[in-house]
Design brief:
98% of the residues lie in helices and 0% in strands. With 169 residues, the chain is mainly α. It has a domain at 38-131. The longest helix has 86 residues, at 2-87. The chain is rod-shaped and about 125 Å long.
């Protein structure tokens, strides 16, 4: 009877440990699923950030070309203004108004380029942040898997010991 009580206690202990093992495996599976989801989200965000960065680069290049064109136009306009001034003060006054407009456009383009550069830098920081988050999730998942393996080994050892005790009795 005492042997049956010991066996029943061992069976209850093994069942409890098996329940804990299943819970740990479920947690590990959940962490693995969340890691995969985080990695997928990070990859999507990195892709969007890269696309956004590429678009910003194209826009910046276009803005730089436009700025260069405006600078060239400004230089040409200044040359033309010199001729106009010599020919007529009235025409020179009108041309000065056009030059001021071009200067304002150059200033707007310079502001746009600065904003685009800042946006590109922010995108890079976001990509780095997402990469760090993915690495942290991977570390948590790896630790959970290690813990699960150690727990399984303990359950197997206890089960083997129980069988050896039963065999010995």
């Amino acid at each position: 009877a005492e042997w049956r009580q010991d066996e029943q206690a061992l069976q209850e202990t093994l069942m409890a440990m098996n329940d804990k093992l299943m819970t740990a495996e479920e947690k590990c599976t959940d962490l693995t699923r969340r890691l995969a989801s985080a990695e997928e989200s990070t990859a999507k965000q990195a892709k969007r950030a890269a696309e956004h960065e590429a678009e910003l680069c194209r826009t910046a290049e276009k803005a730089e070309r436009e700025r260069d064109e405006l600078k060239d136009a400004h230089a040409s306009e200044m040359v033309r203004l010199g001729s106009i001034y010599r020919a007529s003060k009235t025409e020179a006054s009108e041309a000065a108004g056009r030059v001021a407009h071009l200067d304002a456009q150059v200033a707007k383009q310079a502001t746009l380029i600065t904003e685009l550069e800042n946006s590109i830098e922010e995108s890079r920081r976001q990509v780095e942040s997402h990469s760090k988050q993915a690495n942290a999730h991977a570390a948590v998942s790896a630790q959970a898997q290690e813990d699960t393996l150690a727990y399984r080994k303990n359950v197997q050892d206890l089960s083997r010991e129980a069988m050896e005790e039963r065999t010995a009795k």
